[in-house]
Amino acid sequence: KITMKHIKLIAAVAFTGLLLSGCKKYLDVNSDPASPQSPDIGSLFAPVTGTMSAMMLISPITAGQYTQNWSSTVGGDNWDVHGGNAGGVLAIGLWRQFYAQPGASINLVIKKGIIEEKWDYVGAAIALRAWGLQQTTDYFGPMPFYQAWDNTRTTYAYDAQETIYKIIDSLCHVSLSYLSRTDGASNQSTMSRGDQVYKGDRTKWSKFVYGLLARNWHRRTNKADYNADSVIYYVDKSFASNADNFYVVHSATRNDDTNPAGPARDNFTTRRQSRFIVQLLDGTNFYGNTLPASRDPRIRGMLSVSPDTSTTTTNMPAQNGGYRYLIPGAGDPNAGALPVNNPVTLLPTNPLFRQRPSTPYGDSAITNLAIANFTISTGKYLFQNKREFPIMTYHELQFIKAEAAFRKDDKSMAATAYRLGITNTFDFINFFNTSAPNVSAIPFAQRDAYMSSAAVKDAATITLTDIMLQKYIGDWGWNLIESWADMRRYHYFDTDPLTGAQVYRGYALTIFSSNNQGPKPAYRYRPTNFSEYDWNLEELRKIGVLNVDYHTYEMWFSQP
């Protein structure tokens, strides 16, 4: 149990290093009299939230292959078969984004906010530090914190994940204490100039922090001291509706301010919807068939159909309505169906080409024709250039509450939260498709019919499988590390105590990377080689990073 004494001690140690060494002389580097010596705190804060969508998707996009959000068009793809990032190359994004990009800016916002007594900025900045730390440790495991921003050092000791989790809890409570202060120069109008998320609304920032606490404490379901009541308490103090959702906005004028899931960024060149998500929505997983009556109405708002659904050809539509998918590790079986020199105008005439899974950017879009085009309006659901990118949502938190309530054997509370999670996932999908061309909203009647169907359970029939599969659907495409943390908590293949069947029903791995030394799924990434392998090698040896199967070592949070 973490007491206030622990919180104050951890916070004091962390912020002493952070403020005295991490921010050392940042305000003194500019000696040009024509330029500002002390930048406005709002101009420092805004870019910090701007990096969050990249931290949600760019590096974790391969974790989305581990969880089978999507699979690769390339056969035997390393991530499809749960290989690791040898040398740490693909970890550079998240590592750099946490430590170097927003990391230094957060330090400066905290220091400047304390000097100017702008406690609202200080509280929000500490919340972002806690959020980034949660994202990063759940991706890498052990990582430097206490020495991280000490610019007098050339090597940095790694802190254990258990310690990092306690620090996150501490930072959240320190953040809440600053956000609740009414003295000093806190002012919503002033903060709104730099706060692109909540426009200076400290109440919503506090709700976000409680959501972070819910995530942090709910990760520990395998621990003897897991406390479902604490998780439920934090969820109830957090988001009250979709109006509280945390979104990063994008203006889409250039690469860095464009939604990383949009077609301009082209992060899905070789990635297409995987069998697991398609079969969760087309009726296969819940009913064992893909008849129109069995299909989840959310499928057309989330996924993309392939061109073989067209009525202009003799090619019969796929049985599930044309929602083609890839099998992890198998690649695209029809990728070579068309000569590379075939004119674009002739592509639709080839039946095999028409059966290839579409990009996530739109129905029947086999290729991405909008690379680096930041003004184009094509896309659907989350995969649009100018659309917000979600960081935390009401429906996610309701599913967390549902699982916590189920674990304390309150099936009534679990069913209520679970059903709220589902209905608000519908609203979430419709919110994103309001601007998507050729994508209409899911009618309320279809939502209500689904909520009355056998796919949605009540208090008498609900199981962990029901909760976790619906949460997976709600988190699909954006909440990659959260979904991966869930699967790792259930060790991918744990069974449901009520049914005896696999919790993640339908999730299957038939191929594993040869460097796994056996059929072991992935649990973590190696740190980036652009610093750690070059300068911090001895620290890596201490925690076993150099072992060939390090990426298959269980996380602290997933262990008993």
Give the class from helix and strand content and strand pairing: mainly alpha
Fraction in helix: 40-55%
Strand content: under 5%
Tell me the overall shape.
globular
Biggest sheet strand order reads: 1-3
- Radius of gyration equals 24 Å
> How much is the average pLDDT?
88
Description:
42% of the residues lie in helices and 3% in strands. It contains 22 helices and six strands. The chain has a two-stranded antiparallel sheet. It has a two-stranded antiparallel ribbon with strand order 2-6. Helix 2 runs antiparallel to helix 6. The protein starts with a helix and ends in a 17-residue tail after the last helix.
Descriptors for this entry?
single chain; 560 residues; mainly alpha; two-stranded antiparallel ribbon; two-stranded antiparallel sheet; 22 helices
How is this structure best summarized?
By secondary structure, the protein is mainly alpha-helical. It has 22 helices and 6 strands.
Topology summary:
Elements (H helix, E strand, L loop, with lengths): L3 H19 L18 H10 L1 H6 L5 H4 L3 E3 L19 H8 L1 H16 L2 H22 L20 H19 L8 H5 L9 H17 L9 H10 L8 E3 L22 E3 L1 H7 L2 H4 L11 H4 L48 H4 L24 E2 L2 E2 L4 E4 L1 H14 L3 H23 L10 H8 L12 H12 L4 H10 L39 H7 L1 H7 L17
Antiparallel strand pairs: 1-3, 2-6, 4-5
Helix pairs in contact: 1-8, 2-6, 5-6, 6-7, 7-8, 7-10, 8-10, 10-11, 11-16, 16-17, 16-19, 17-19, 19-20
